[in-house]
Amino acid sequence: MNRARRKPTAEEIAQMAERGDDVSRFFTNKGKIKLPVQRVNVDFTADMLKELDEMAGELNISRQAVMKSFIRQALDQHYAARNKTGNLVGRRAIPRRPNSAASRNGPPSVAPGRSKAKRRS
Asked: How far is residue 24's CA from residue 88's CA, in Å, rounded to a whole number?
């Protein structure tokens, strides 16, 4: 009877490595590093929440995903503008993925009836 081999646990792999056994077959290098998440509280006006909910409905994503996308886009724009002027202090240490939603979509749009803040020269 041909029995399937059981995958060793992380503890068993660690013990094999400590004995000096080759454990490279257990690693595919296909994993992704997940950065730690820190929760924050942000206060929004009722109108802004309504706009975020409408945008989430249009995009069929969560309100939180809308906020993360818009913040990522705004930060990318900030660093791109800073890099154009040659001021590289404070740029992002982690490069943006080229296929992220922020790179596919344009900048966050301003809701109808709202004006963009005047930019300084």
From this structure: 40
- Contact at 8 Å (CB) between 102 and 96? yes
CB neighbours of 79 closer than 8 A, spacing ≥ 6? 91, 92
pLDDT digits (tens, 9 = 90+) for 22-56: 988 888 888 788 888 899 999 999 999 999 999 99
Which residues have CB under 8 Å from 63's CB, separation 6+?
49, 52, 53, 56
Which residues, 6+ apart, have CB-to-CB distance to 111 below 8 Å?
51
8 close to 26: Cβ distance less than 8 angstroms = yes
Which region holds residue 47: left if phi is over 0, alpha if psi is between -120 and 50, else beta? alpha
CA neighbours within 13 Å on the CB side: how many for 69?
21
Residue 76 host element (H or E):
helix 63-84
